[in-house]
Amino acid sequence: MQSRNSILSCLEQSPVILADLAAAIPEAERKPRRIAAKWSIHEHLCHLADVQPMLRGRFEQFRDEESPRFEPYLPGNTASDEHLLAMDWDQALETFATQRGRLLAFLRELDESIWLRRAQHSEYRLYSPDILLRHVLMHDHLHMYRIEELWLSEAAYLSA
Q1: In which region does residue 32 sit, left (phi positive, over 0), alpha (psi from -120 to 50) or beta (all else)?
Q2: What is the pLDDT of residues 116-147, one digit of tens each?
């Protein structure tokens, strides 16, 4: 429970961290792909907003089903890159903050019995609400790191 509360507190800060990072990036540097066939800064940021309903849906499945089943979420198959590029930067930031606030309110109301449930997920050996919660945090920070890396790294030091 202590770890869960720490993660929830960290997730509450993600929209603030992302907004500060986004505000520093010049508009001309947001959409160009610095690495061929890899997402741009804009795509990483918009993906964070775009994935929020799916994440909420997974937690709702844990609430509603005794032993839910999940399939991997693969952005290239689920939503096209063009979809992410077409999203509005400012709207994505607002959507991320709004949806994250709603998700956190929902999660804080879940009964403890829900947190004990287990799911089947074809990608993972073990899957639970606490694992998903931790994944959400790591997912936020992975994409925020990629955004900063794409913005600040010299070309020779970019991760492929």
Answers
A1: beta
A2: 999 999 999 999 999 999 999 999 999 999 99
Angle between the 41-50 and 129-152 helix axes, to the nearest 10 degrees?
160
For the chain, domains (ranges, CATH) are 2-157 (1.20.120.450)
Q: What is the pLDDT of residue 1?
A: 61
The single-letter DSSP state of residue 157 is G
d(CA 114, CA 72): 21
- Sequence letter at residue 3: S
Residue 96: which residues within 8 A CB-CB, separation 6 or more?
14, 15, 18, 48, 49, 52
CA dihedral 146, 76, 125, 64 (to 10 degrees): 100
User: What is the pLDDT averaged over residues 86-103?
Assistant: 98
Q: What is the pLDDT of residue 73?
A: 85
Inter-CA distances, 53 with 26, 97, 103, Å: 28, 12, 9
Cβ atoms of 152 and 46 within 8 Å: the answer is no
